[in-house]
């Protein structure tokens, strides 16, 4: 049995979508054609009997394009205002598209305080479990509108891994503007080699990470993705980093095809979400 064949059997899947994968590079506006493909892919996973959770970036990017702002705002209040406008628009489009495939989308907005506080964390887990039991598809984002430090702290790579750990997901797919993990930054080093499979994370791999993102709309570089890999694999989930340029890659990954970098689950016997959250600050 090929190692990637195990992905076909996954039951609860978290899919993280980066801002750059949802928007047109030239304008920063939503790429509706890509969103239609994304929703069709996710709806089909759901039709296969799998439970699907989406962690979607894009609220600030959508909000700023709606208001004619052609750069990433530096002021916290302006970023939060863009998030308030963009989150509503983004969710409206998700709901309309999922409804076309007879699926129900639900919105969950989280902050790091949701995770730090044990009572709210348990409540969030219960909400996720109930939504999935009801057959809904939760769409998660950070609550950038009201959190005083969430935009600076937060990135949806880490959030998606925490959601995977919280919900007991057995698969996490990170889709961004990169093909996967390389031995060096392929944008700067043409000799960088692609890494197909990571059986165990170590300090050598962490040292490869570049804490940068080439996108003008995203926040997460490779360092955040490796942090996410540590959390997800320790919690018992396999994880794939793949390019979100073509969302058809989702079904290809789930069919066990060779796309992206696969990080194998390395469940720790004494995995405590509290300890992970404490380290995140």
From TrEMBL:
It comes from the Bacteria. The keyword Kinase applies. It catalyses: L-glutamate + ATP = L-glutamyl 5-phosphate + ADP. ATP binds at residues 16, 176-177, 219-225. Pfam families: AA_kinase. Keywords: Amino-acid biosynthesis, ATP-binding, Cytoplasm, Kinase, Nucleotide-binding, Proline biosynthesis, Transferase. CDD domains: AAK_G5K_ProB (cd04242). Substrate binds at residues 57, 144, 156. InterPro entries: AceGlu_kinase-like_sf, Asp/Glu/Uridylate_kinase, G5K_ProB, Glu/AcGlu_kinase, Glu_5kinase, Glu_5kinase/COase_Synthase, Glutamate_5-kinase_CS. GO terms for molecular function: glutamate 5-kinase activity. Residues 11-243 form the Aspartate/glutamate/uridylate kinase domain. Its main location: cytoplasm. This is Glutamate 5-kinase. It comes from Blautia stercoris. The gene is proB.
């Amino acid at each position: 049995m090929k190692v990637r064949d195990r992905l076909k059997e996954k039951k609860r899947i978290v899919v993280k979508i980066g801002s750059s994968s949802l928007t047109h590079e030239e304008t920063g506006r939503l790429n509706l054609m890509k969103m239609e493909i994304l929703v069709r892919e996710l709806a089909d996973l759901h039709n296969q009997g799998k439970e699907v959770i989406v962690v979607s970036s894009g609220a600030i990017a959508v909000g700023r394009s709606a208001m004619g702002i052609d750069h990433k705002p530096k002021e916290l209040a302006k970023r939060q205002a863009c998030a308030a406008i963009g989150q509503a628009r983004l969710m409206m489009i998700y709901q309309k598209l999922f409804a076309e495939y007879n699926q129900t989308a639900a919105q969950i907005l989280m902050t790091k305080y949701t995770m730090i506080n044990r009572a709210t964390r348990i409540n969030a887990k219960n909400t996720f479990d109930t939504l999935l039991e009801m057959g809904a598809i939760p769409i998660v984002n950070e609550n950038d509108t009201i959190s005083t430090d969430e935009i600076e702290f937060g990135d949806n790579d880490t959030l998606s891994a925490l959601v995977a750990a919280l919900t007991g997901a057995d698969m996490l797919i990170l889709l961004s503007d990169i093909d996967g993990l390389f031995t060096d930054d392929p944008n700067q080093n043409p000799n960088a080699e692609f890494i197909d499979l990571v059986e165990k994370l170590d300090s050598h791999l962490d040292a490869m990470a570049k804490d940068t993102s080439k996108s003008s709309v995203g926040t997460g570089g490779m360092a955040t993705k490796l942090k996410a890999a540590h959390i997800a694999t320790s919690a018992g989930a396999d994880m794939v980093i793949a390019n979100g340029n073509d969302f058809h890659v989702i079904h290809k990954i789930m069919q066990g095809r060779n796309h992206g970098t696969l990080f194998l689950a390395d469940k720790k016997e004494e995995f405590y979400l509290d300890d992970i959250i404490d380290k995140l600050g």
